[in-house]
Amino acid sequence: MFVRSYLSKVAKNVVSSANYATKISKPEIPKNPLSSIYTAANQKENGVVYDKKPFRLNLEAGKTYHWCLCGRSKSQPLCDGTHKDIYLKVTQRPVRFTVEKSKEYWLCNCKQTKNRPFCDGTHKQKEIQEAGTVRL
Ligand code: FES
User: Domain Iron-binding zinc finger CDGSH type, which positions (predicted)?
Assistant: First the structure.
């Protein structure tokens, strides 16, 4: 009898002192510190869908990168100068960007993100998943 009541009290204490984490932390959304300097980050038109999922890349803090917006580079997700080919008549320009911390980032490969050059989940939309891709 004594043992049962003791165990009951212990069980209540364990349950009441348990620390439950109910909030799931949201992933950090990176920003391009150069977007206010170079207007190419504000181009209205998006490029063609290159791929329907983002690409993870290890980036160094402070280094300047050029993200392909036109979707025709062969070095995706970065620019290789293909947009300069006059026969392709590409109107988009690459987006210069940098990062504040050296780590892995998910770069947009569907070219439809609203947070250039980082993936914002836009590729999950039905229209993008059903769109054709352009690979040269
Ligand atoms: S790959 Fe473009 S928004 Fe995710």
Answer: 52-89, 92-129
